[in-house]
UniProtKB/TrEMBL annotation:
<dbReference type="InterPro" id="IPR016181">
    <property type="entry name" value="Acyl_CoA_acyltransferase"/>
</dbReference>
<keyword id="KW-0012">Acyltransferase</keyword>
<dbReference type="InterPro" id="IPR050680">
    <property type="entry name" value="YpeA/RimI_acetyltransf"/>
</dbReference>
<protein>
    <submittedName>
        <fullName>Acetyltransferase (GNAT) family protein</fullName>
    </submittedName>
</protein>
<dbReference type="Pfam" id="PF00583">
    <property type="entry name" value="Acetyltransf_1"/>
</dbReference>
<keyword id="KW-0808">Transferase</keyword>
<feature type="domain" description="N-acetyltransferase">
    <location>
        <begin position="1"/>
        <end position="149"/>
    </location>
</feature>
<dbReference type="InterPro" id="IPR000182">
    <property type="entry name" value="GNAT_dom"/>
</dbReference>
<dbReference type="GO" id="GO:0016747">
    <property type="term" value="F:acyltransferase activity, transferring groups other than amino-acyl groups"/>
</dbReference>
Length: 149
């Protein structure tokens, strides 16, 4: 397995995985939109995307966004996306991607790395818990969604 920090030259490898990730979360397939979104992230340097390869095939990715904590007065990271191709699961890809995310946090002296997953995604929850991520029992999270007209 090889993991690299992705750049614009990796777009063709990331887009199918990113699209599959969105479909997993019940969004319609949209290759054109996925390419535009990922391209913009890479061109603007808005996020860090790590891309895993097994035998030359793109096997999975994780995308992290930088954020800041006012309370701890430091940088933190939002691990927003992690996806492993169905054919590559159970081969350590998810763990390896999490290790890269944690290494980024350590390198940049981040206060923490935060992530979320669907309450029914028990496979991902176990992966996160097995890799030193703790379920938050202190804070309640709220969000709002813009209603479409």
């Amino acid at each position: 397995m090889n993991i690299k920090l992705a750049d614009i030259n990796d777009l063709q490898h990331i887009v199918p995985l990113f699209n599959a990730y969105r479909v997993f979360y019940k969004q319609p397939s949209d290759i054109t939109g996925a390419e535009a979104f990922v391209r913009e992230r890479l061109q603007n340097g808005d996020s860090k995307i790590y891309l895993a390869f097994i035998d030359g095939k793109a096997a999975g990715f994780t995308q992290l966004y930088p954020i800041f904590s006012s309370v701890s007065m430091g940088k933190a990271w939002l691990l927003n996306d992690l996806y492993v191709d169905a054919d590559c699961r159970k081969r350590g890809v998810g763990k390896a991607l999490l290790d890269m995310a944690k290494a980024l946090g350590a390198e940049q002296q981040a206060k923490w790395i935060m992530l979320q997953t669907d309450t029914t995604n028990t496979t991902a929850q176990k992966l996160y818990e097995d890799n030193d991520f703790e379920k938050d029992h202190c804070f309640t999270y709220f969000h709002t969604i813009k209603k479409e007209a």
